[in-house]
Specification:
Layout (H helix, E strand, L loop, with lengths): L2 H23 L2 H22 L5 H19 L4 H11 L12 H8 L6 H11 L5 H8 L3 H15 L9 H23 L3 E2 L5 H17 L4 H14 L2 H4 L19 H16 L5 H14 L8 H15 L2 H15 L1 H8 L2 H5 L3 H14 L2 H14 L1 E2 H20 L1
Parallel strand pairs: 1-2
Helix pairs in contact: 1-2, 1-3, 2-3, 3-4, 5-6, 6-8, 6-9, 7-8, 9-10, 9-11, 10-11, 11-13, 11-14, 13-14, 14-15, 15-16, 16-17, 16-19, 17-19, 19-20, 20-21
Length: 406
């Protein structure tokens, strides 16, 4: 097994193994440490010795041994040693055993944890995101996020493993949906690394969202989130060239979009909106549906998208929504109106590469080439995704060349 293949398999198995170990032993923090050690052992051994017949059971067995060793070193947990040792000798879980990933995610979103702690913990445990990636999603320093996750792990350690009663699930659902939303976003547009996207993450987010919808089919926001995911993922085939380079929405070959996913997403959001309980994921899905149903970028119903972004902005107050609204405003009212919406947005978003990128595009539309080149270069310096960086650098070079020839 190659190193890359092993890494992909381990990323897929990690949340399943963690769920199984927490279900057996409890103590989330200790279980996560043990699973991380098992994953490290697998990453070292499998490329050399070959993949075991049952990789999931192998990881659970190794993590269980780590748990036993830890209990033996801890005199304060002597009473748990015999129980842990007996568990470690039980037969490995059969491959067909249920997947505990969804339970693990709900467990991470316990009401005793604030959303600011629960969501990062779930992204770490379920999504396998690094602390740096999670910090980028929350626009906070990496050290701050590391402390937040560490404290959350300790709190989650006393949480019993299993699904809460139906009347108690609703209070966790908002955090669960936000975890899936961020997990999908990181998979569809990776915050760092050599690739534009990570299909393992976005695919896992869609799989879990389908599971949540099966559990609560009457919740319109769950349907809205699933609709948003599949409508967005439908564009993936046209989002990159053969060499992996980014293709912006305006230039994508729409015949390559997945019409099956578009039909599914449109049906989901149509049904959800009929319930009359409109939430932010439903509005985002409605925006995605307008894009996906347009024959071309120019034929898009931009006034409708602008109206939906206005509603979403009032619902959330999210500065990223304002950033997207500026693009729609430029399409309807001209680049000057879009640029006006960016004034002061730096204070809310920080020095984020996306605000420089959007400003660059709008400045180019307004004919201010020099300023656009500078903004494209600023955006390229600030992104940590190499594909985005290359695209932004190329755009800056293209404009600079056009300016030189004028």
């Amino acid at each position: 097994m190659t190193g890359g293949a092993a890494e992909g398999l381990l990323r897929e198995l990690a949340p399943q193994v963690l769920g199984a170990v927490v279900r057996r032993y409890g103590n989330f923090a200790s279980a996560e440490d043990a699973v991380q050690e098992a994953l490290l052992a697998a990453a070292t051994q499998w490329p050399v010795e070959g993949e075991p017949d049952n990789p999931r059971s192998w990881l659970i067995r190794v993590a269980s041994r780590r748990m036993v060793d830890q209990f033996r070193r801890d005199d304060a947990r002597r009473t748990r040693e015999d129980l842990a040792a007996s568990w470690s000798r039980t037969p490995p879980d059969p491959p067909s055993e249920r997947d505990d990933t969804l339970i693990l995610m709900i467990m991470c979103c316990h009401p005793s944890l604030s959303p600011a702690s629960a969501i990062p913990l779930a992204l770490r445990a379920v999504g396998g995101l690094t602390t740096r990636e999670i910090a980028a999603a929350f626009l906070v320093p990496e050290a701050t996020m590391a402390q937040r996750i560490s404290r959350a792990k300790v709190k989650a350690s006393d949480e019993p493993f299993g699904l809460p009663e139906p009347d108690k699930r609703a209070e966790r659902m908002r955090s669960v949906l936000h975890v899936l939303y961020l997990l999908f976003n990181e998979g569809y547009a990776s915050s760092s690394g050599p690739d534009l996207s990570r299909t393992d993450l976005s695919g896992e987010a869609i799989r879990l969202a389908r599971g949540v919808r099966a559990a609560v089919p009457e919740d319109p926001e769950v349907a809205g989130l699933l609709a948003l995911m599949v409508l967005t993922d439908a564009r993936r085939p046209a989002r990159t060239r053969a060499d992996g380079e980014l293709v912006p929405l305006a230039e994508q070959e729409r015949t390559r979009w997945d019409r099956g996913l578009i039909s599914e997403g449109v049906a989901l959001i149509t049904e959800a909106l009929r319930r009359g309980q409109v939430g932010e994921y439903q509005v985002q899905a409605a925006i995605a549906a307008v894009h996906d149903q347009a024959a071309s970028y120019g034929d898009t119903d931009w006034p409708e998208i602008l109206s939906l972004y206005g509603l979403l902005e009032r619902m959330t107050g999210n500065p990223m929504v304002t950033l997207n609204k500026a693009v729609a405003t430029a399409m309807v009212q001209g680049p000057g109106a879009g640029l006006a919406l960016l004034d002061g947005l730096d204070e809310r978003l920080g020095d984020h590469h996306r605000i420089h990128s959007v400003r660059a595009h709008l400045l180019e539309q307004a004919g201010d080439t020099d300023a656009a080149v500078a903004e494209f270069r600023d955006a390229a310096r600030r992104t940590t995704n190499l594909r985005e960086q290359h695209y932004l650098t190329t755009e800056a070079a293209r404009l600079a060349t056009e300016r030189a020839h004028d």
